[in-house]
Please model this.
Amino acid sequence: MDWTKQFIRYIIVMLLQVLLFDQLQLWGACHPYIYVLCLLMLPITIPHIPSMLIGAAAGVVMDIFCNSLGVHTAACILLMFIRPYLLGGIVNDKDRLNEQISLRTLGMETFVRYVAILVVVHHLTVFLLAAWQWQHIAFVMLETAVSSLITILVVIGYNAMKYK
Amino acid sequence: MQNLLKILLRYSNFLVFIALEVAAFLLIYYNNAYPRSSIFSTANDAVAWQEEQITELRSYFSLKSQNEQLALENADLRNQIVSMDSVQIDGSFRYSSAKVVQMTTDQLHNYLTINRGSHDGIQRGQGVRNEEGAVGIVRTVGPNYSVVLPLINTHTNLSCRFLKNDYVGTLQWDGKDCRFAQLADVAAHMVVNPGDTIVTSGLSPVFPEGIPVGIVENSVLKTGDAYHTIRVRLYTNFKRLKYVELVQNEHLQELEELQNGLD
Model:
């Protein structure tokens, strides 16, 4: 695994997040958090506890930009905690789990399922914790649906471009 | 003992997960209750500087409308000079200006970051307004930048009153539309008409009395309700906010000491 490559990708993705995706104030409910791409694409060979710590670090950085200390942190830790269990559950050929996670190694269907489930879990957690009150639940659901869709498309598009 | 260690080791992933989540939830709780940490917010120098560059870049695309706004403001100021005798000045408040570095308007918890911090004498709890009306309250203060809690944040409560009869209510926001807020705690016996002007009450040390907030858009009173449901059209256009004024209450510290002494 190449740490430098992972780090450079993280910087580029965070720049895109802050410069482009945080500026989308189009429909009021559109807040895609594309930075989860870096967490989703981390090799599964990283042990469980360090991977949760990486998630926590990425969450704190995003929280600073959102003035929401703890919200993204909690969501990213949850994402990194369920990731290995989810992969174990949806990947039939266990030999593939030794490789890097990508569209090519997992296959289209499994990969889309993997990305969609984790992105929805992450976005729903972020929006629920940010709202903090049940009275906003309808807005939270709309926000989750719109934003998750865009994030999922970005992650899959990135992979389709890279592993054409 | 050995068995206990075995169990701990077996479930170590889960235990670490729980510990991290508890830490994250404590962060959320303390950040909501006592948002003192300026490093972990957009009041952080590096983050605010970066946001400032983005806003700067974007502002070139709205030069025309900014010019028009300035022209309007100039005209308004000239009118105010003409009628200067009618301007009331409350001696305990002072004003200073700041530039908006970053702002969101489409989330439940919107914030704005301004380019003034503790080096410029900014304190937590100061009021923020612009030439249109009230904007918000200073929430977190960094050395050179501060984060402001605007009226359009679901955490905000601002004591306001009707201009016509001094009846006091609390301004809140439902998280839906950044042009409208809601006025709560107005009892059913009050007569509320669309077009009634809402101003700050002066009951809290944040704002002087009578800063414009908005006008009543409509009010609903269902049978059996004890309070009106009032929708207020805010004077401040948060989508176009570029410059703000900070309201400094000279007696803020004294007031706080007095109130703390009561507890």
Summary: Residues 137-162 of chain A form the longest helix (26 residues). Chain A has one domain: 3-162. DSSP finds seven helices and no strands in chain A. Helices of chain A lie at 3-19, 36-40, 48-66, 71-90, 103-106, 108-131, 137-162.
